[in-house]
Amino acid sequence: MSVLENWNEWKDFLGDRLNHAQNEGMNEQVVNNLAFEIGDYLAKQVEAKNPQEKVLADLWSVASEQEQHAIASMMVKLVQNNGSH
């Protein structure tokens, strides 16, 4: 099963990656920019695997670039304290 198929597993996965990036010294702006790039890639290239991802993809598709950055930033905040580490 892909990590993308389960919303909670996806959030845990993102939380783990965020914790790792922060432990390596990546600052908040770099993390948010990377989240935007990942969100853009996922919205354009990867089919949503669950209802939550579908909502995010739909929101992303109608958002301006500034709003997309806000969505990416909110996803970072959502997973900030998630993850197994």
Automatic annotation (TrEMBL):
InterPro entries from the UniProt entry = DUF3243 (IPR021637), Uncharacterised_YmfJ (IPR024702), YmfJ/YflH_sf (IPR038292)
Query: What domain of life does the native source organism fall in?
Result: Bacteria
Instruction: Write down what this protein is called.
Output: DUF3243 domain-containing protein
Known Pfam families for this protein? Answer: DUF3243
